[in-house]
Amino acid sequence: FDPRHYLGTHCYGFPKTGPHRLRFLLESVKDLRETLKKRGSTLVVRKGKPEDVVGDLITQLGSVSAVAFHEEVR
Questions:
Q1: Owning domain of residue 54
Q2: What are the residue boundaries of the Photolyase/cryptochrome alpha/beta domain, all occurrences included (predicted)?
Q3: Total structural domains in the chain?
Q4: CA 1, CA 46: separation in Å to the nearest integer?
């Protein structure tokens, strides 16, 4: 979770991520984690700027051969 998406960001006077959207995101991530766990896998969730967190995670895991990402559409 990139904190820049949740703190003081507004589009047309509306918060980019309000309380309802945030609740939906958190419930969705929780459900995905539980589904993956039932299938013998897991979901790694981190909070921070992706440009910092991804590098740290790769270093921590050690055996990463590929990283996939998407760019937010603006």
A1: 3-61
A2: 1-74
A3: 1
A4: 6
